[in-house]
Structure formats: C-alpha cells, structure tokens
Request: fold
Amino acid sequence: MTMKPSIAFPVAAAVLAVLAAAPLFIPDYWTGVLLGMTGYVTLATAWALFSGPTRYVSLATVAFFGVGAYVVAVLNEALPYPLVLLSAAGIGMILALAVGLSTLRLAGVYFVIFTFGLAELVRQTVSWWEVNITYTMGRYVFLPFEGRHIYWQLLALAAVTLLISWAIGRSRLGLALKAIGDDEVVAAHAGIDVTRVKLLLFVISATLITLVGAIQAPRWTYIEPSIVFNPTVSFMTLIMALLGGPMRLWGPALGAIPLFLLFEWLSVSFPDHFSIILGLLFILIVFVMPQGVLAKIDDIRKGGRA
Amino acid sequence: MSEALQISNLHKRFGGLIAVRDVSFSLAPGEVVGLLGPNGSGKTTVMNMISGALPCDGGTIRLGQTDITKMKPHRVAKQGVARTFQLVRPLPTLTVGENVLLSLAFGHRRHWGREARELVEEKLAFVGLAGRGDEQVSNLTYIDQKRMEMARALASEPELLLLDEWLAGLNPSELKIGIDLVQHLQGQGMTVLLVEHIMEAVRALCSRCIVMSAGEVIAEGPSAEVLAQPAVIKAYLGDDHA
Ligand SMILES: Nc1ncnc2c1ncn2[C@@H]1O[C@H](COP(=O)(O)OP(=O)(O)OP(=O)(O)O)[C@@H](O)[C@H]1O
Ligand SMILES: [Mg+2]
Reply:
C-alpha cells in the first residue's frame, strides 16, 4: 500500500480503465454485481473520510444515501439529469451542515446513537410527507439508464472519492484530522479549529454518500422509504470500512469488495438469517481486528520479522 | 511600553469552588516568570484560561494589544500563545515529527511542505531529538516525550510560552538539561510563564515570581525575596514552619 505515487497513479488508471471496460465483455448479471460493489466501495471510502481519523462512528450513512435517492425520485421528470444530481448533492450538503452543526459536539456513543436516530427520523419524515402532503406511497424513477450506465457513473464517483481521500491524506487537513482523532484538546491548542475541520469533513463525506444514493436511484425503478432508508446500508458500510481499516486510503475499498460479495451470497443463500450473520460478523471484526485487516497484516509482518 | 501579557481580575468558579479569585499580574516581553503555589491553588486553571481551554468567569486577558479573554484555544494559539500540558499529551497516531509539524502547520505562523519539514528538524534538534522525527511517539522515554511537547510548543514560534510543570518528573541530570533548554529560550528573548514546584529550577530561571494560594495571589516580586516571605513558606509548608 506504500507504492510511490509515480507508480501508483498509472496502476490506478489502468485498473480504472479495465473496470470501466468490463461491462462490454461480461454478462449483465456481473455488471450488476460490479455496480453494487462499486457503490459500497464509494460508501465505505466516503464514510471513512470523516469517521476514520476522527473516530466519530456515524450510522447516518443511509440517511444521506436515501435522501440522494429520493431527490432523484422526486425531481427526475422535472429537471435535466445533471441538475438532478446537483440538487441531490446540494440537499445532502445542507442536511449534513445542519446535522453537523447540531451534533459534532456530541462525543462517543451519543454521536453514534444520534446518527442512528437521525436516519430513522429522516425516513419517518419522508414517509409522513409522502402520505400526508403529496399523497404518494412510492415513486417511479424513469431514467433511460441501463446497469452499465449507472455503473460507470458510480465508478467515476468512486475514483473521485478515492482521489479526495488521497489528497486530504497528504494535506494539512489530513494532519489536522489525525490530530483531532488523537486528542481534540491538543489539536485545538496547536491552532486547529476543531469544530470547523470536523464539520467540513462531515459535509464532504455526507455529500459523496448522498451522490451514491442519487446515482443508484434509477436502478430500483420504484422507490419508497423502506427501500432506500434501509439501516442495513449504514451497518454494512461501517463493517466494510472497519474490516479494511478506516485510517488507510485503500482500506475501506479492500474491506468493501470481499464483504459485498459475501453479503450478496448470504442474502441469496440465507435470506432469513442475513441480519444475524451480519451482526455476528460485525462483532467478530470489531474484536479481532479493530484497526482493520491491513493493519493486522502489518502487525503480522512486523511480528514475523521481530 | 506594552506588556507581553496582562491579566486583570481573573475569576474562575467550579460549582461552589472558587478556583481563581481576582488574580492580576503581567509579564514584560522577554521575561521568564514563575507561577508558584501549593497543589490545587489554581495555577493550571490560570494557564487554562490564558490558553483559552477554560472560559473565564470574570476579568480580562490581554496579549500585547489584543484582548484574548473570550477567544477559543485555536484562536489564542494563532495569536502566538503556546503551551505544554501538566501531564504530557503526545498524539500517538502521529510520528514525533508530525506532532511538531502540527503546530507549524496551524499555529501562529503557518508553514507547510519542504520548509515546514526543515523547521521540524530544527525544532527537534533544539530540544535534543535530532533525527528522530520518523519515530513513533510510543518509543519515546518520558523526558523525550516532554522534549517533543516542548518542540511542538516552540514550532508555532510563539510570543508567549506557558509551561505547566514541564520540569516535573525528571531525574537530576535531566532536570539540568531541561533548565538549560529554558535558559536558552530565555536567551532568545522568549516570554515564559512557568508553573513549577522545583525551587532549584525557579531560582535558576525566574527573575520574578507570583505565588498563589487557594486561588489568590499572596505574593509577587523578585524570586529571592518572594521565596523568603513567611506567608509563602507557610502556604507551601503549613503553619508549623512559618
Ligand atoms: N475542570 C475542573 N472542574 C472542577 N474543579 C476543577 C477543575 N479544574 C480544577 N479544579 C479544581 O480547582 C482547583 C485548582 O486546580 P488547579 O489544577 O488549577 O491547581 P494547581 O495549582 O494547578 O495544582 P497542582 O499543583 O496540583 O497542579 C482545585 O481544587 C481543583 O480540584
Ligand atoms: Mg496544575
């Protein structure tokens, strides 16, 4: 993972090109799998952007994801598609600002609980709105996209997300985030505006998450709150990022790929026990390798040498 | 001539406890002043109010011409106040060098890139940690952690340095190194407010002392005179010795 940028960039570009070309050569079913996987790679990477270094565990992922999908459902016939995406990003950003301003002062488990509650609140609010104000129970998304079109958009978003994560990691902002994760008091006394940094990262992370939901919306065709605000999305994102290691650039992506495939298989093979297995996996990962697999591998390598 | 730091009528309450009561003093530029007093007399609380970690319940704090009374810690830092902590607080996920880089990048003067890396090395060398920037903080001994914290404080190129028992817990030879280091800063014209229990260090470093007891200033003046005052001896050692 410590490749020199001079090698890493061409390699990343080549991998991206291969991934982009893949739908032209593989069956639609596998394009669908790639699509779902890319969605989770982006979600986990975007989640870790904020939650990795600050250690503020957010369960609000699906709140933003669902809002993104809903904005597309509401606006897809009213506006040109690029404007629909832009509106989704803008609304996600505003929601993140409001949430961030009111919650980033909460610490530890209070933040976790609040973000979980937030996702539920947003879902209930949207349901109530649809039932009582607009009198619609669900909405149709009519956009002329096939799986591979959605996949390409997600792939581009994944690349952008990784690029943002890479750039932040090398910047002052990245250093500030790590310091905040270690000790907010020291960070503040070193001259860091802790609240602003946290807010900024939360907003960037949430906006990217909102866009994942927005881009994936056409895949469902029919959208209702219980579909797009499914809390499993938040938990899966969290587990994936933790498995791979939320403090590393490629960590969340490397956690997302195997887990997505595993979840795909589990949800098909054991649909009734899916939640239980998810919960057990979660506990296992947190106990066995709280820093993620990459750190675990590093440890083992170091241990082997010492 | 303007004072480097001017504190007037500072107050702090914690519930029913008055931790700091009507404290006033000032530091001239380039002065190293000792803030003394028995345990719980309010020294750290004063430091915390100057650095913005605690809001004041009354009084004002001026840094040069600037009123910093209501400023948040990051703004106070940017105004040129740096501090160490009574209990060392290294940042464990950062390397030794990154710990120092932090206040270069965000402090009083902002540096980044190659220039910042050179300054990190310079500050580490100054405190005696030359070439150890890439090490993990967990590898450092206690005195080296203290050195690193000093380098982190100095990296912001502060106008005022707050040292809260920075010399505590060092063995005699380390203490000598520590005192030398502060004297070196003194030679460079740094203004320092030094909380200290070790009288040897106070005598060596501070031309002037302020003594607190139970939240109030009970004596102030040249170190030798202040330390000989009966009220000071009594505050430190109890009635029997007065
Ligand atoms: N955050 C706080 N909440 C409540 N009480 C506090 C707090 N900080 C300090 N105090 C109390 O205020 C008083 C002054 O404490 P302070 O830490 O300023 O003393 P000090 O002079 O630095 O002592 P020491 O020499 O032991 O470091 C003490 O009685 C302490 O218990
Ligand atoms: Mg103290």
